């Protein structure tokens, strides 16, 4: 394996609920190389979503170190984490998380607006994204005027418009029928084929089976890593 793009060492995450503690992640050690396609799987409450939030710098561990592209991002300030998140990480969610009042084109452009990219460059990149994702004739439509598959394509276009090196997808086919879900899987696989690291959290064994590596979570711990099985 090449140098790790993502390296988690001794990661712990504990939530306190009243007088009790819930160990959402337990001493997690994982390394993911650039360009890998990984599925994080396991039952509800196994720590999958907590892990995704941590990888996306939406949450901080209580112990351990998270290195992204060799940089320790564990102790960065909120502002520094936001900058890394904007420039290096794209998110795709089950419920799309599009802004209802914005058109497809405006939703795609939103991360670039927040990053201060000039209007002309924004327009050029949005035009390319609309073409790449087959959305040219839906550019002026709001999310409620789009099908589920079109909304997820808009979400993927928005997630990739800043040209991130990592895509984090949380149940990206969960609200889609099987045929539309397979189309979304193909889009994610194309991104991975272009060199983007893709990490998917899913309950769906079919979706998880598309990934070249599976991580099985249980009670906050990594119970199985198919990469280690292959190396055995």
Summarize this structure as a short list of keywords or feature phrases.
232 residues, alpha/beta, six-stranded mixed β-sheet, 8 helices, 10 strands, 37% helix, globular
Number of helices: 8
Overall CATH class: Alpha Beta
- The helix/strand class is alpha/beta
Share in helix: 25-40%
In order across it, which strands form the biggest sheet? Answer: 6-7-8-3-9-10
Descriptive notes:
The protein is of the alpha/beta class and 232 residues long. It has a single domain, classed as Rossmann fold, CATH 3.40.50. The chain is built from eight helices and ten strands. The protein has helices at residues 48-55, 78-88, 104-114, 119-132, 148-160, 178-193, 205-210, 226-231, and strands at residues 6-17, 20-32, 37-41, 63-68, 71-72, 89-93, 166-170, 197-201, 213-218, 221-225. A six-stranded mixed beta sheet has the order 6-7-8-3-9-10, sandwiched between helices. It has a four-stranded antiparallel beta sheet with strand order 2-1-4-5, covered by helices on one side. Strand 9 and strand 10 form a beta hairpin. Helix 3 (104-114) crosses helix 4 (119-132), helix 3 (104-114) packs parallel to helix 5 (148-160) and helix 5 packs parallel to helix 6 (178-193). The longest helix has 16 residues, at 178-193. It is globular. The chain starts with 5 loop residues before the first strand and ends with a helix. The model has no long low-confidence stretch (mean pLDDT 92).
């Amino acid at each position: 394996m090449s140098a790790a793009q993502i390296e988690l060492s001794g990661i712990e995450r504990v939530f306190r609920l009243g007088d009790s503690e819930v160990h959402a992640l337990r001493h997690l050690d994982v390394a993911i190389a650039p360009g890998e396609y990984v599925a994080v799987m396991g039952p509800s409450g196994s720590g999958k979503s907590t892990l995704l939030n941590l990888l996306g710098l939406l949450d901080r561990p209580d112990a351990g170190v998270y290195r992204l592209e060799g940089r320790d991002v564990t102790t960065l300030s909120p502002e520094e984490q936001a900058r890394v998140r904007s420039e290096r990480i794209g998110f795709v969610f089950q419920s799309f998380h599009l802004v209802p009042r914005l058109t497809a084109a405006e939703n795609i452009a939103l991360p670039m607006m927040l990053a201060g990219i000039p209007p002309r460059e924004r327009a050029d990149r949005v035009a390319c994204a609309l073409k790449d994702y087959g959305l040219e004739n839906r550019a002026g439509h709001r999310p409620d005027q789009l099908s589920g598959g079109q909304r997820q394509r808009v979400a993927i276009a928005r997630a990739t418009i800043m040209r991130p090196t990592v895509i984090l997808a949380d149940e990206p086919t969960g609200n889609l029928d099987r045929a539309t879900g397979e189309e979304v899987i193909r889009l994610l696989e194309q991104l991975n084929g272009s060199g983007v690291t893709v990490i998917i959290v899913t309950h769906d064994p079919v979706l998880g089976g598309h990934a070249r590596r599976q991580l099985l979570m249980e009670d906050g711990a990594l119970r199985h890593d198919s990469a280690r099985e292959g190396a055995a």
